[in-house]
Structures are given as C-alpha cells and as structure tokens.
C-alpha cells in the first residue's frame, strides 16, 4: 500500500510533479497492484460493512456518479446493514411522490416512515417508536403547477430536518438523495456543511452527488468513506483532487476501468470504487 508521504494532489494548473509522472506512466493493472486494490463482489462488501459498522457511531460518506449508475441502490443496501431504531436515518427526497417509486421501496425495505413535513407530529413519533421504525423519509408535497410554492415548501421542511439532525444527541444519519439540488437549488449551504464540519459522532451526513463540480470541498474532504462510480465527465474527475490521501490520477485510472452494465430499462450501471480514508484502503466492488 502506498503511504500518504509519496502521494500528491492535483494542483489547479495540473502541473506535473515527479511523483505525478511516475504514476501516470503506470498501467491500471500496475496501479491496482501497487495500491493493493481488492476486487470483490457486492455480497462480500456488504457483509464486511455490516461487521465493520456494528455498534459503532455513523460516519460521513459521499457517493459520486452520473444519474442511474447505482448510487441510490447502493446507499439503501448499506443503510440496511447499519440503521436500527437506535441508529436511525432521515432520507431527504426532493422528487414528487408519484415520481418516486425508489423511496416507496426504500421505506418498505428499511422500515422507514414516509412523511411530507418536518418535524413529525407527536402521534407520528409515538407510532414510529411503537413500530420500531428505523427512521424517516421526508418527501414534501409538490403541486407541479406552482414551482415557487413547491420550492419554498421543500426547502422549509428539508431545512427543519437538517437542523434537527445536526442538533441531535442520538446517533443519526441524514441522507441527501440529491445533494447537488439541496446545496445549490434550495440554497441550504450552511445547513449542509454544518455536520460535515462538526457533526460527528452523532450526526453523520451521506451525500449522493451527480455533478461534483458545484459541491463544496467539504463534500470530498470530510467523509471517511467515498464511493465513486464510472464517470467520463472530466470536470467531475478534477474534483477527485479534493479527496486527499490518494493521487487523483490513481482514482481516475481505476474508475475509468470500472465495468458498466446496461439494465433492461436502458440505464447504465457500473462497478464502483470504495475509498476508506484510513489507510487509505481502496476496493473495487462489482454490481452483484
């Protein structure tokens, strides 16, 4: 495993260093070997995650990749291994209810309660506790005819949920299903950045990001775990320099070689690279 001392970052002008050049001359296979990158199946990955996260406080995580690469599916699989009535999750969903079958399925599989407002009422809270729920899906109603009103409504309830999560004294994960939209469209910058700066060990932030270039440095630098799907967008790849601890060319070389698969619905999903900052430890994970 390469050590942090001989890793470099990508400067703004992309100026090569001697270390940069030596890495660029290597093939993907050589990089995989030199950085001790494992390739494992999804079941093994989730089994290891379950053992690793048992009885531990939640951690920050960022998932990067184009739409329909598999970010939401993976996040739901990982939450299934980690959340409980004692370590809950709040999922922020900005999609209108009738266009959001994924969250309906997530609520059922993860034992979550879907509500269109925040905070939940006393009755909803008592009922969720009685049913041993693992958390909430916050999905505000949208008219789709008055966009200003819809924007205000979604922002209001998301902001309330984010602030409550930040102030919690119980272990909790808040999931930004469309972090780019929450940060840029709804303008919840301070609320988004607060847990990334000082949310642990109680309030962990999980971010699903499609367009990396418009997100803050904290989205890459703060998380202990990062997941990167195949992404040919060069502007997004340049943000890998902000991860720290791993040369961005190493990340680009590995992710460029991630296998992709076309689904029956015509979507292109891919393998992913998991980076655990401690070490660092790099693992390529298959879709199955």
List the helices and strands and how they pair.
Layout: H1 18-24, H2 28-34, E1 38-40, H3 42-53, E2 61-64, H4 71-82, E3 88-92, H5 101-110, E4 113-115, H6 122-130, E5 135-138, H7 147-166, E6 172-176, H8 179-185, H9 189-198, E7 203-209, H10 218-221, E8 225-229, H11 234-237, H12 248-256, E9 260-262, E10 268-270, E11 272-276, E12 281-285
Parallel strand pairs: 1-12, 2-7, 2-8, 3-5, 3-6, 4-5, 6-7
Antiparallel strand pairs: 8-11, 9-10, 11-12
3D shape: globular
Q: Spell the H/E element sequence.
A: HHEHEHEHEHEHEHHEHEHHEEEE
Rg from C-alpha positions?
A: 19 Å
Mean pLDDT: 89
What is the CATH class?
A: Alpha Beta
* Quaternary form: single chain
- The CATH fourth-level homologous superfamily: P-loop containing nucleotide triphosphate hydrolases
Q: In which order are the strands of the major sheet placed? A: 1-12-11-8-2-7-6-3-5-4
DSSP E strands, number: 12
Put simply, the count of helices is 12
What is the domain tally? 1
Largest sheet: 10 strands, mixed
Which segments are poorly predicted (pLDDT under 50) over 5 or more consecutive residues? 1-18
Mind telling me which CATH architecture this is? 3-Layer(aba) Sandwich
Structural class, by secondary structure, is: alpha/beta
């Amino acid at each position: 495993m390469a050590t942090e001392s001989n890793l470099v970052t990508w400067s703004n002008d992309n100026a090569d260093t001697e270390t940069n050049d030596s890495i660029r001359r290597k093939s993907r296979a050589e990089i995989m070997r030199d950085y001790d990158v494992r390739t494992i199946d999804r079941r093994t990955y989730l089994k290891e995650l379950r053992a690793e996260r048992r009885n531990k406080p939640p951690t920050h995580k960022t998932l990067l990749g184009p739409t329909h690469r598999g970010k939401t599916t993976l996040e739901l699989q990982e939450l299934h291994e980690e959340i409980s009535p004692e370590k809950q999750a709040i999922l922020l969903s900005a999609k209108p209810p009738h266009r959001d079958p994924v969250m309906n399925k997530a609520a059922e599989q993860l034992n979550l309660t879907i509500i269109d407002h925040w905070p939940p009422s006393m009755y909803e809270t008592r009922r969720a506790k009685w049913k041993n729920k693992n958390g909430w899906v916050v999905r505000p109603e949208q008219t789709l005819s008055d966009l200003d009103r819809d924007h205000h409504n979604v922002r209001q309830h998301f902001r309330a949920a984010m602030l409550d999560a930040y102030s919690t004294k119980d272990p909790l994960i808040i999931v930004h299903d469309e972090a780019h939209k929450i940060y840029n469209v709804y303008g919840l910058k301070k609320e988004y950045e607060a847990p990334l700066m000082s949310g642990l060990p109680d309030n962990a932030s999980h971010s699903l990001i499609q367009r990396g270039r418009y997100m803050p440095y904290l989205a890459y630098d703060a998380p202990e775990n990062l997941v990167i799907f195949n992404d040919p967008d060069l502007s997004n790849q340049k943000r890998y320099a902000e991860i720290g601890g791993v040369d961005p060319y190493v990340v680009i070389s590995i992710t460029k070689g991630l296998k992709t698969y076309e689904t029956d619905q015509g979507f292109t999903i891919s393998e992913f690279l998991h980076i655990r900052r401690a070490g660092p430890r790099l693992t390529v994970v298959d879709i199955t």
